[in-house]
Specification:
Blueprint: H1 4-11, H2 15-22, H3 30-43, H4 49-56, E1 61-68, H5 70-73, H6 78-91, E2 97-104, H7 109-119, E3 124-128, H8 135-142, E4 147-150, E5 160-164, H9 166-179, E6 185-190, H10 195-210, E7 220-223, H11 227-239, E8 246-248, H12 254-264, E9 274-278, E10 291-294, H13 297-309, E11 325-328, E12 331-333
Amino acid sequence: MKGIKHLAQHLDISIGTVSRALNGKPDVNPETRKRVLEAADALGYVANQSGRALRKGRTGVIGFMMQTGSEITGQGDTFFMSVFDGVQAVFARHKLDLVALLCSSEEDPQDYLRRMVARGFADAVIISATRRHDPRIEFLAKRKIPFVALGRSLTDAGQAWLDLDFEGMAEASIDRLVAQGHRRIAVTRPHDDVNLGYVFVEKCREAMARHGLTLDDAAIFSSTPNEAGGYQIARDLLAAKERATAVVLVNETIAIGLYRGLQEAGVMPGRDIAVIGRHSPNSNFLSPRLTSFRLSLHDLGEALAEALLATMPDYAQHYPQGVTRKLWPMTLVEGESDALRIST
């Protein structure tokens, strides 16, 4: 790969003329522009993006911050890979590039974000795994860095956000199970302070109260959002003094571990306990087929990208919706995992 100086020397013309030709400036003779472009292609010229970014004050890079580690992602994270695909599909329209900012589960997310912002290689940020009280939101807002959150928080700086409709999932699941005769219903939540856990449990309590039922604290099982977490939930469910007849799983990956833990004890989902969860590609291989909530992660990614660009002056004219705050719907697809019905 050759730089612009070598290209100018090769053509025996000024660096300024070469630069204007490469950038499509109208004051360059068409024949000269043709010579420059042909030579650039032949010599393998690649523009110095860092220099260009410095001149423009923009990098053309958007950072997507997510936490990593076996405690978080287990055997892999198809959720984020599918979301990334939708995000980049939108960014490609504007010659923007998505970069994953991978924060280790052993590092404080606030410290990690401060370091990434200090390096200044991203024009905007998408944050995920929002906490009940999330200092990253105030940090980005105070520094006027464009951002959108995948998830809600009690910390409110007027930011754009999209979140899965965990309230709708909670209500639909509880109503379905109660209609099937279940009265002892367990639910799950993440093990940490991520806000979705509070939202989900609170709405499950409300839904059960509408039916004259109580969600006891002993029926709320927290775990890491991975296969191991699901396996531990199965053990805890079976060890409970008063065993639940149904369980609702808030995370998409824990169903695999839950199934294994239950089946090792001779307890069959759909026959001995009703299970409702969230769909993931791996859940396609579960038997009995999981009754689950599904959504298009690609479409969610596209909406997330458009919500972010709507907050950025250079792109807002393409996305005039203003600040987006939206619950993303999930669709219940019936399987056999909640076939158990309780006679009343």
